[in-house]
């Protein structure tokens, strides 16, 4: 009886100690704009946050603290050096040079060196939690000495009214190392589309590095004209080539990272490819660019690796239409591309029947035959 009581006390104390340790190693890190004031619609503002250089921090969840009314999107970068020594600055590659004299903050790039994409948010997406034993490793001995928050402002009504902004992210962090490390690969294109036309923006890159990646979440991003974005692992050659879907979603739905349902391991020699189907309903050419009147074709793939060796290059890009299509890459067998790659998926990755999405035209494209457009591109290349 005495032994039973002693064991009960011991295990009770051990459980309490475990809970206390877990509680103490899980923290919140606020990565928020420090009461900034945007001057123009489509301003891109950045703020930097220095990480602990002595000890690594492990990010296990991303909690948005922003609304689509204020922010078109929020991006989180890891930098060796931030793009400015100022706490707040206009992110240089997105700043409008014609209005630079009117800007409240100085202009600079997102990162001065060592840029790494960590997270992206838009359209009132919900929080993202990483799988068990997976985390983004920042600070310490890593090349990520700073986190840089970038906010693309959708309107300036609150600033005209005299208010400031604290949009951003609340990160769940831990000081405990994880056996698996998370990374993000961004696939994006340049290019343009003619007035009143259906167009395909495509990009593919070969994985040259000796690495095995396990994609576990994906995110799509486009502006008003995007219909569907899809991502694929491409393995093999010629008639033996296989295109395996990583993720497919309408970019007109909330743009959070969504779970990938199956393990699509990607290794050296594989290709990673993405396609964005867009419909230009305007009477003018629309180009890829930073403002809400331009377009973007982005497919984000969040992955984990055993250990901490991530991709050395985390951006895969192409020149887009009319210069680049899959059919112009001799390593890609376009006959193996799944037909549904260019179709808007059913819910939850596409709109519900009768749902009216931004732009109003997205539902009718579900009934339009996409393959004719693809044959036109590939048959005209010979």
TrEMBL record:
Any single GO molecular-function term of the entry would be: peptidylglycine monooxygenase activity
Q: Where in the cell is it found?
A: Secreted
InterPro entries with a match to the protein in the record: Cu2_ascorb_mOase-like_C, Cu2_ascorb_mOase_N, Cu2_ascorb_mOase_N_sf, Cu2_monoox_C, PHM/PAL, PHM/PNGase_F_dom_sf
Keyword Secreted assigned = yes
Q: What is its EC number?
A: 1.14.17.3
Q: Which reaction does it catalyse?
A: a [peptide]-C-terminal glycine + 2 L-ascorbate + O2 = a [peptide]-C-terminal (2S)-2-hydroxyglycine + 2 monodehydro-L-ascorbate radical + H2O
Which UniProt keywords are given for this protein, alphabetically ordered? Copper, Disulfide bond, Glycoprotein, Metal-binding, Monooxygenase, Oxidoreductase, Secreted, Signal
Q: Where are the transmembrane segments?
A: none
Highest rank taxon of the organism: Eukaryota
Q: Which SUPFAM superfamilies match?
A: PHM/PNGase F
List, in alphabetical order, the GO biological process terms annotated in this UniProt record. peptide metabolic process
Q: This protein is called what?
A: peptidylglycine monooxygenase
Q: Which organism is it from?
A: Rotaria socialis
């Amino acid at each position: 009886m005495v032994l039973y009581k002693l064991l009960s006390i011991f295990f009770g104390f051990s459980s309490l100690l475990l809970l206390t340790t877990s509680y103490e190693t899980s923290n919140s890190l606020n990565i928020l704009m420090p009461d900034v004031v945007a001057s123009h619609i489509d301003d891109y503002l950045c703020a930097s946050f220095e990480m602990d250089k002595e000890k690594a921090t492990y990010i296990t969840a991303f909690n948005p603290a922003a609304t689509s009314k204020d922010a078109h999107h929020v991006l989180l970068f890891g930098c060796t050096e931030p793009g400015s020594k100022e706490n707040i600055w206009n992110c240089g590659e997105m700043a409008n040079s014609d209005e630079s004299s009117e800007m409240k903050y100085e202009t600079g790039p997102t990162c001065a060196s060592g840029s790494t994409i960590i997270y992206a948010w838009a359209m009132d997406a919900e929080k993202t939690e990483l799988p068990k034993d997976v985390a983004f490793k920042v600070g310490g001995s890593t090349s990520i000495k700073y986190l840089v928050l970038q906010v693309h402002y959708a309107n300036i009504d609150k600033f005209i009214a005299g208010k400031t902004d604290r949009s951003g992210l609340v990160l769940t962090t831990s000081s405990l190392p994880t056996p698996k490390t998370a990374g993000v690969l961004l696939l994006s294109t340049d290019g343009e589309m003619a007035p009143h036309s259906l167009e395909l923006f495509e990009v593919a890159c070969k994985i040259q590095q000796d690495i095995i990646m396990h994609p576990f979440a994906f995110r799509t991003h486009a502006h008003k004209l995007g219909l569907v974005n899809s991502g694929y692992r491409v393995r093999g050659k010629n008639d033996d080539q296989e295109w395996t879907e990583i993720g497919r979603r309408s970019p007109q739905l909330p743009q959070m990272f969504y779970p990938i349902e199956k393990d699509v391991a990607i290794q050296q020699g594989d290709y990673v490819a993405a396609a964005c189907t867009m419909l230009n309903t305007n009477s003018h050419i629309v180009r890829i660019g930073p403002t809400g009147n331009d377009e973007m074709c982005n497919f984000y793939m969040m992955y984990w690796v055993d250990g901490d060796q991530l991709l050395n290059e985390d951006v895969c890009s192409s020149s887009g239409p009319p210069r680049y299509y899959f059919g112009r890459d001799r390593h890609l067998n376009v006959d193996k591309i799944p037909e549904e790659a260019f179709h808007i998926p059913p819910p939850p990755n596409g709109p519900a029947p009768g749902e009216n999405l931004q732009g109003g035209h997205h539902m009718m494209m579900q009934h339009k035959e996409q393959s004719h457009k693809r044959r036109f591109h590939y048959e005209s290349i010979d």
